[in-house]
Each structure stands twice: as structure tokens, then as C-alpha cells.
UniProtKB/TrEMBL annotation:
<dbReference type="Pfam" id="PF00440">
    <property type="entry name" value="TetR_N"/>
</dbReference>
<dbReference type="InterPro" id="IPR001647">
    <property type="entry name" value="HTH_TetR"/>
</dbReference>
<protein>
    <submittedName>
        <fullName>TetR family transcriptional regulator</fullName>
    </submittedName>
</protein>
<keyword id="KW-0238">DNA-binding</keyword>
<keyword id="KW-0804">Transcription</keyword>
<dbReference type="GO" id="GO:0003677">
    <property type="term" value="F:DNA binding"/>
</dbReference>
<feature type="DNA-binding region" description="H-T-H motif">
    <location>
        <begin position="32"/>
        <end position="51"/>
    </location>
</feature>
<keyword id="KW-0805">Transcription regulation</keyword>
<dbReference type="InterPro" id="IPR009057">
    <property type="entry name" value="Homeodomain-like_sf"/>
</dbReference>
<feature type="domain" description="HTH tetR-type">
    <location>
        <begin position="9"/>
        <end position="69"/>
    </location>
</feature>
């Protein structure tokens, strides 16, 4: 039986998948490249050779996140070309369900506050997703802004553990119902 070695390209893809999970949970500053190396069965120096630096590795993970979202939107639009929005929304909620994309994006946004390279990449990710969405839906700025706002809402709700099975509006109604039943009157 012949043993096949992974190519650098395959290892890079494996490292990015593992890196997305590690960065989603621990962020750029507290994550360990050793965690990624252990997960994919290589040495820590090998991971650094693949990307050059931890920072470049983080940016590569953001690129992969964008690629996944854009690919998801393309597939959704292909299945419902007349009105791709519902399929795009459903696919996005499904993509977020594992928590990796949500965690990675929130970590990236937190890092972007103090790291201009990450901030620039985050802006590029948003721009790329908006460009893809506009191309697939013929949406104008108003619809794109609403879609971006809806996506940000889904990310936030998913991050705090709100059930999104019924969609964003059902989740909002659920939160409002929880708030009204758990609120106690303030006494002055």
C-alpha cells in the first residue's frame, strides 16, 4: 500500500480550516499556531513556512471566509435565479450554524480596531461580498445595505446563542417575548 504525502497546497487548505476554528475561538493574539499544527499533524515551523507569519495566516483565514460566503451566494443564486435572496439568507444562516464564521468575523472586527491591516482586510471582505451580492441579485445600494444589516444581525444573534431556525424576525420576536416575561418592574 502506497502512502501519499499531502502537497503544500493541501496542507495550506487544512491549516486554514483549522486556523479558522482556532482564531474563531481564541483570536489573533491569544491563539497558538501550535494548536493548528497539532490538529493537522505538522510542526509549528511548517505552518509558519506556509504563511510567513501568524498575522498573514489570520488574513488568509479571512480570505477563505470571504471565499466560502461568496461561493455559498453563487450556489444559492444558481438554485433560485429569479429571487436568490431567500436561498442566500438560508444558506448564510446554515454556514454560521457551526460558529466558526461568526467567531472568526467577530475576532477580526475586534482586532481591526487596533490593526489597520486587519481593518483593511475586513473592509475588503465586506466589499467583495457586497460586489458578489449585487452581481447575483441586481440589488441597489438600499437592498445591499439591508442585506448587510440582516447579515450582521444574524451574526450577532448566532454569537449570543439565539435560535435562528425560524429566521431573524422569529428570533427577534422570541427575544422580545423573553424580555417581556423576564422583566421586573423597577421600584424607585
Amino acid at each position: 500500500m502506497e502512502t501519499r504525502r499531502s502537497t503544500a497546497e493541501q496542507r495550506r487548505a487544512e491549516a486554514i480550516a483549522a486556523g479558522m476554528r482556532v482564531f474563531a475561538d481564541h483570536g489573533l493574539t491569544t491563539s497558538s499556531i501550535q494548536q493548528v499544527a497539532n490538529e493537522i499533524g505538522v510542526s509549528q515551523p511548517y505552518v509558519f513556512r506556509l504563511f510567513g507569519s501568524k498575522h498573514a495566516f489570520f488574513l488568509a483565514c479571512l480570505d477563505e471566509m470571504e471565499r466560502q460566503i461568496r461561493e455559498l451566494f453563487r450556489r444559492a443564486a444558481a438554485t433560485s435565479p429569479a429571487d436568490p435572496w431567500p436561498a442566500m439568507r438560508a444558506g448564510f444562516r446554515e454556514l454560521l450554524a457551526g460558529g466558526v464564521i461568526t467567531g472568526l468575523w467577530l475576532q477580526a472586527c475586534a482586532t481591526a480596531r487596533r490593526d489597520e491591516a486587519v481593518a483593511a482586510r475586513c473592509r475588503s471582505v465586506i466589499s467583495g461580498i457586497l460586489e458578489e451580492t449585487a452581481r447575483l441579485t441586481d440589488a441597489g445600494s438600499d437592498d445591499l445595505a439591508r442585506g448587510l444589516a440582516d447579515g450582521a444581525l444574524v451574526v450577532m444573534l448566532q454569537a449570543v446563542g439565539v435560535d435562528l431556525a425560524g429566521g431573524s424576525l422569529a428570533a427577534i420576536d422570541s427575544l422580545r417575548a423573553d424580555s417581556s416575561t423576564s422583566a421586573s418592574p423597577h421600584h424607585g
